[in-house]
Specification:
The chain has 81 residues and is mostly helical. It folds into 2 domains: 1-37, no CATH class; 45-81. The protein has helices spanning 19-24, 32-35, 47-76.
């Protein structure tokens, strides 16, 4: 029975590393060392502005379930415990 290999390397996803490459990375098998990383788009928003915006969005998302819980409790006539 013949073995047929269907393996193919996909850029930024998989690569067959040689033993020499693995040795060169001191046997560390973290995929990014061998596969490479896709270069993403540059983020031009200043860190402080982005952090403030995301923190605000997160606060809104945390508040929404509390508001919904209060509405449900009110509709059911259940006091908060």
């Amino acid at each position: 029975m013949a073995y047929i290999s269907t393996y193919e390397e996909i850029p930024d996803f998989c690569e067959a590393a040689t033993l020499e490459e693995v040795r060169g990375h001191e046997y560390i098998l973290t995929p990014g060392r061998y596969v490479g990383l896709e270069v993403g788009e540059e983020d031009s928003e200043p860190f402080e502005d982005k952090m403030q915006r995301l923190t605000g969005e997160l606060a809104e998302q945390f508040a929404k379930p509390r508001e919904l819980e209060e509405r449900i409790r009110k509709n059911l006539g259940v006091d908060r415990v």
